[in-house]
């Protein structure tokens, strides 16, 4: 661990030692850390997440940029997006965004994937190789964490099992590809990280539950609202980011490569109520034309970008040899102001 990295993490820990439970909760929220039920657990979770974000911050400083590819796992509707954040730009740039029916793409419509280890291994190998065609190779791969099942789950549908297996093997393949390549003589070294991405943390960062939702409403209705909110939010982020010229505007969150900028403008010009699928050049292997998978992969990647940026801003406020009360107040104020700006953004989008 470098001395500068150790110093920042020490200052973060000092801040957490002096912070109240509510302040720790705000800090956790803005860097994507697990919240925790006690102050000690909150501090431990913050420190763990900050160690990873500090690693990414230093990597971004060395390279001048960092890229993240986030995946929403599914056999029929596998989606991923890739963003790049550069030192000389306040906005991340969308580099790639795809949705794939894995069976159609890698089995050429010959058959459906069965719970057969040979077929699953081959499909995930092909998928892993396909992800590396999206250059540049990402610095971070994230895979949306699937729900776990317990013995109380009497019936587990086969598609759910397939997605859980897909997540586990894909995570393993990505890590083992790097291990194998880096142990091979004369091979170009691979340097990236693979992380599970918590869907609850992503959703809570971007979506405010509707106050009018009845307390006793069914879970399915709540999930439907959350899904619709995420799709709407992504559409609004795309629209406002294309139409807004000011890169510092609170409603401009992303920038685009020429390819994606043109696709989004084209979709906006054709109809007011566009689908995210309209932006992609849909092929036979692109899966069902539904938007939630695309929205989730987009927001997972953008969440990690946001958490890195928030951490960078907090680290800059703690840039000294010792923690002062003034610095603590600045960090707390930053967290509160950022949360308020997110609420304003979400309310603005929800009112449209």
Quick structural summary:
It is built from twelve helices and six strands.
Commentary on this structure:
It contains twelve helices and six strands. Strands 5-4-1-2-3-6 form a six-stranded mixed β-sheet. It is α/β, with parallel strands linked by helices and 352 residues long. It is globular. The protein has one domain: 2-Layer Sandwich (Nucleotidyltransferase, domain 5). Pfam families: Ydc2-catalyt (PF09159). One of its GO terms (cellular component) is mitochondrion. This is Cruciform cutting endonuclease 1, mitochondrial. It comes from Saccharomyces pastorianus (Lager yeast).
Structural class: alpha/beta
Based on DSSP secondary structure assignment, what is the total number of beta strands? 6
User: What is the CATH topology descriptor?
Assistant: Nucleotidyltransferase, domain 5
What is the helix/strand order?
HHHEEEHHEHEHHEHHHH
Task: Name the assembly state.
Answer: single chain
CATH class: Alpha Beta
Number of helices: 12
Major β-sheet strand ordering: 5-4-1-2-3-6
Unreliable stretches, pLDDT < 50, 5 or more residues?
211-221
Distance between the termini: 47 Å
Strand coverage percent: 5-15%
How does the overall form come out from the CA principal axes?
globular
Q: How many discrete domains?
A: 1
| Radius of gyration, CA atoms, in whole angstroms | 21 Å
| Assigned CATH architecture | 2-Layer Sandwich
Name given to the CATH homologous superfamily? Ribonuclease H-like superfamily/Ribonuclease H
Mean pLDDT: 84
Helix content: 55-70%
């Amino acid at each position: 661990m470098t001395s500068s990295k150790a110093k920042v993490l020490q200052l973060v820990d000092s801040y957490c030692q002096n912070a109240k439970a509510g302040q720790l909760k705000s800090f956790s929220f803005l860097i994507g850390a697990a919240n925790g039920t006690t102050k000690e657990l909150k501090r431990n979770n913050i420190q763990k997440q900050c160690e990873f974000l500090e690693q990414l911050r230093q990597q971004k400083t060395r390279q001048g940029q960092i890229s993240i590819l986030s995946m929403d796992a599914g056999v029929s509707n596998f989606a991923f997006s890739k963003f790049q954040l550069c030192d000389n730009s306040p906005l991340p740039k969308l580099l790639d965004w795809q949705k794939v029916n894995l069976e159609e793409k890698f089995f050429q419509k010959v058959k459906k994937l069965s719970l057969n280890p040979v077929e699953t291994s081959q499909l995930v190998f092909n998928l892993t190789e396909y992800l590396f065609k999206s250059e540049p190779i990402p610095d971070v791969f994230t895979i949306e964490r699937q729900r776990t099942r317990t013995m109380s789950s009497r019936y587990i549908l086969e598609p759910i099992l397939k997605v859980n297996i897909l997540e586990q093997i894909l995570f393993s393949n990505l890590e083992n590809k790097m291990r194998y390549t880096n142990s091979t003589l004369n091979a170009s070294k691979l340097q990236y990280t693979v992380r599970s991405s918590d869907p609850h943390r992503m959703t809570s960062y971007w979506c405010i539950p509707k106050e009018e939702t009845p307390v006793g409403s069914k879970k399915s209705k709540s999930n439907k609202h959350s899904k619709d909110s995420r799709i709407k939010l992504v559409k609004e982020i795309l629209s406002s980011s294309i139409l807004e010229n000011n890169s510092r505007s609170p409603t401009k969150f992303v920038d685009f490569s020429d390819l994606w900028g043109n696709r989004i403008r084209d979709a906006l010009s054709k109809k007011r109520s566009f689908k995210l699928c309209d932006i992609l050049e849909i092929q036979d292997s692109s899966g069902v034309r539904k938007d939630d998978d695309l929205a989730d992969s987009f927001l997972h990647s953008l969440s990690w970008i946001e958490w890195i940026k928030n951490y960078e801003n907090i680290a800059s406020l703690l840039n000294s040899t010792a923690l002062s009360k003034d610095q603590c107040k600045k960090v707390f104020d930053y967290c509160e102001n950022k949360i308020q700006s997110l609420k304003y953004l979400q309310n603005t989008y929800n009112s449209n």
